[in-house]
């Protein structure tokens, strides 16, 4: 299995010299096994992934799992070329609420004042599946489990297993969420991530800004490091960077995280996601 990062940035794309190393595209992560392709989120990184897929002859089935519908997680989707090619079968998965369902993912964005093409231009065979917290589904040979995250909009955490590897995709999540009626308890998150091989997690804040941004639904690198120790995670991947954090800042967050883990006597490995990074499992 290969996990490849096509977009690592939170909130808004930030192209330019100061972000060229860790990348400016918004979230998109490809998981490819011998049999299946799963894509987590359709931020602007998915455009280039679409071009890659189009260049390969043997791909027909694609599975796109959306964590939530905040703009940064869906804004690349309409530029994903396989959508407009009848050769592909694309299955979408995502949270559904009383107000919005995953079935509206394309229709709500197309054919209005914001975009020139309408749903009739979509030629791929499309299907939709609502995912609810604590679901377990199987996509090809991959088992996918879900949990609700602590975020400002209903957001799913996805955990998937393949060939004894366990990976968690938990973008846009506040680890230090204040207890409230709808808060997901810290211990539930720890349990869900327990003993995972890789944890891909929101690193929107540093330790200082995390204090003033309580309730924003994001986390710092240090909260993530502490969480990884408690959940006995083996590797953490810093992800969903603040658009105001340039390469130098992300480098310093990475160094700080490694130092913190070491000071706590942990041997957890930590890397910072960057566009093009591939992890082989
Ligand atoms: Zn986001
Ligand atoms: Zn969000």
Protein described:
The radius of gyration is 18 Å and the shape is globular. The strands form two sheets. A seven-stranded mixed β-sheet has the order 6-5-4-3-2-1-14. A seven-stranded mixed β-sheet has the order 7-8-9-10-11-12-13. The chain has one domain (2-280): 4-Layer Sandwich (Metallo-beta-lactamase, Chain A), CATH 3.60.15.10. It has five helices and 14 strands. The chain has helices spanning 45-54, 186-193, 207-212, 221-230, 247-263; strands at 2-7, 28-32, 37-40, 61-65, 89-95, 125-131, 136-139, 142-148, 156-162, 165-170, 198-203, 235-241, 269-272, 278-280. By secondary structure, it is of the alpha/beta class. Helix 4 (221-230) packs parallel to helix 5 (247-263). The protein is 18% helix and 28% strand. The longest helix is centred in the last third of the chain and has 17 residues, at 247-263. The chain binds zinc ion (2 copies). One zinc ion (ZN) is lined by residues 68, 70, 151, 172.
Annotate the secondary structure layout:
Layout: E1 2-7, E2 28-32, E3 37-40, H1 45-54, E4 61-65, E5 89-95, E6 125-131, E7 136-139, E8 142-148, E9 156-162, E10 165-170, H2 186-193, E11 198-203, H3 207-212, H4 221-230, E12 235-241, H5 247-263, E13 269-272, E14 278-280
Parallel strand pairs: 3-4, 4-5, 5-6, 10-11, 11-12, 12-13
Antiparallel strand pairs: 1-2, 1-14, 2-3, 7-8, 8-9, 9-10
Helix pairs in contact: 4-5
One zinc ion is lined by residues 68, 70, 151, 172.
């Amino acid at each position: 299995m290969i996990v490849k990062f096509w977009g690592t940035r939170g909130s808004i794309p930030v192209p330019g010299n100061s972000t060229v190393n860790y990348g400016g595209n918004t979230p998109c992560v490809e998981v490819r096994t011998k049999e299946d392709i799963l894509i987590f989120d359709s931020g602007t990184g998915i455009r280039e992934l679409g071009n890659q897929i189009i260049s390969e002859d043997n791909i027909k089935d694609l599975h796109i799992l959306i964590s939530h519908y905040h703009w940064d997680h869906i804004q690349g989707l309409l530029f994903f070329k396989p959508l407009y090619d009848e050769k592909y079968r694309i299955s979408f998965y995502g949270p559904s609420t009383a107000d919005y369902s995953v079935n509206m993912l394309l229709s709500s964005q197309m054919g209005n004042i914001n975009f020139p093409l309408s749903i009739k231009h979509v030629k791929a065979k499309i299907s939709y599946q609502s995912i609810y917290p604590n679901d377990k589904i199987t996509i090809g040979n991959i088992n996918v489990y879900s949990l609700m995250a602590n975020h400002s909009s209903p957001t799913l955490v996805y955990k998937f297993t393949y060939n004894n590897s366990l990976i968690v995709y938990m973008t846009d999540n506040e680890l230090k969420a204040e207890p409230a009626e709808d808060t997901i308890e810290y211990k539930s998150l720890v349990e869900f991530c327990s003993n995972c091989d890789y944890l891909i997690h929101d690193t929107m804040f540093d330790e200082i800004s995390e204090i003033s941004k309580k309730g924003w639904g994001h986390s710092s690198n240090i909260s993530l490091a502490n969480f990884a120790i408690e959940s006995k995670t083996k590797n953490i991947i810093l992800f969903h960077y603040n658009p105001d954090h340039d390469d130098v800042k992300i480098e310093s967050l990475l160094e700080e995280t490694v130092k913190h883990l070491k000071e706590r006597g942990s041997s957890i490995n930590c890397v910072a996601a960057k566009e093009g990074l591939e992890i082989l499992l």
